[in-house]
Amino acid sequence: MSPNEQGMHCVIAEDAEIGRNVVIGHHVVIHSQVIIEDDVVIGDGVVLGKNPSKSKTSRLVTSDLAPLRIGHGTVVGACAILYRGSSIGPECFIADQAVVRERCRLGVRVVIGQRSTVENDCQIGDYTKLQTAVYLTATSTVEENVFIAPMVTTTNDPYVARAKSSHETMQGPVIHKAARIGGGAVLLPGVHIGQEALVAAGAVVTRDVPPYRLVMGVPARVVRQVPEDQWLFLPDGVRRE
């Protein structure tokens, strides 16, 4: 017998797989085939395994999605929505009202802040933190130990939906290992933020940012090197002792 705690007025599909010591709040909806590993906490009003929908003009592929999987020890805050086709790593923290769309992969101990949105087909590495109200656009890649401050906006459409080929050219930014993005910054489609780079608050990044460099301004320009005593990783990728 599973020692799970379950709140009132929940709707749970019969084929959902729920591990041991799982706590489920009130008014939770768990859709078909969702896999919840041990020691997970699900807040009130959460929706798990939602199937995506799309507008009549959208080219988004929403079929043949794998079941949502939530790794052990993860906490999902109140009214969060996690879509089918995504995988949430162990010991993640998904805050209240956050949304993680389909085909996303979150690593170990990833934090998704309150009211943040992770759009479809994003990859987020271990120990990365997205703070409050971050918008991570579709097809973005965020490597491990990245910090993204509140209200950061990323974009993926260089033609702003005015070209017929815009869908084929869409590409979110790539944020490399241990980079930091300051509050309210905007990253344009396809830019690379180098390892250990620092984007200042309010900057608009229109081109690639070199590793270990601080950029600021509109458009963002290199100002200086990030102080070495702030580095988590050396240029060869080895973590500092």
UniProtKB/TrEMBL annotation:
PANTHER family in UniProt: ACETYLTRANSFERASE, ACYL-[ACYL-CARRIER-PROTEIN]--UDP-N-ACETYLGLUCOSAMINE O-ACYLTRANSFERASE
GO MF assignments: acyltransferase activity
An annotated GO BP: diaminopimelate biosynthetic process
Protein name: UDP-3-O-(3-hydroxymyristoyl)glucosamine N-acyltransferase
Gene3D superfamilies with a match to the protein in the record: Hexapeptide repeat proteins
Keyword Repeat: yes
Lineage: Bacteria, Bacillati, Bacillota, Clostridia, Eubacteriales
Keywords: Acyltransferase, Repeat, Transferase
